Amino acid sequence: MSPSRRTAARSARALGVASAAAALALGVASNALACNISEFSAKASCEGDKGVITVTDVDASGTPALVSVYLENNGSDDHEVGEQTVTGSREGVTITFAEDWKPGATYRVHVLAGDKKNPIVDKDITPFLTTPSQGCKKDTPTTPPATPTKPAPTPSASTPATDTPAPSAPASTAPAGTVSNAPSPAAGDSNLAETGANSNTGLIAGVAGALVVLGGGAVFFGMRRRGAKSGS
Prior knowledge:
The protein is an alpha+beta fold. The chain contains 2 helices and 8 strands, in the order αββββββββα. It has a domain at about 35-130: Immunoglobulin-like (Sandwich), CATH 2.60.40.150. It has helices at about 5-35, 200-230; strands spanning about 40-45, 50-55, 65-75, 75-85, 95-100, 105-115, 120-125, 130.
């Protein structure tokens, strides 16, 4: 073999080795930049007293991906919380889903990257997302208001005291110690107010007149006897 041929063969072999090395390096670099499900992560957190679910994409290739979040119930999808498109970066890009999650709830996060007919990634983030054991709203114990004490009623100064009136004496009873000027009826005259059919007034008057005459006669005869004694 002439020197020129040997030189040409060596040059061809070196070129082949270099091409193979370049192809291998390009393949490794391509695999390193390919989108992968491991570059996605999900987290449940709070913004104030509101719950949110965040998904972070650190895919350095910048492949657009559709992220869908589902609430799980007994191993199946209960309902879809929402879906958003994210284009990741080496530094990471985060998207947020507003969700008033309950403590200990489970969510499934699905990633579809690339063409829908021939996607690069079409998987769920594993394990499924489980929310914290404490919710965003803190229960503040409330003290029941004290029952107001009803004040005792105070007697009004304008209200007169109620006294029980003393029983009044019967109108027909004459006051004690009152002396009547009317003449008391004589004994046996209790029938004077009657018609007079049974009255003894005439008999009493006759007896009284006889007694007066007898008394006057006795006085007269007594005075005459005294005069006759003094004249003898």
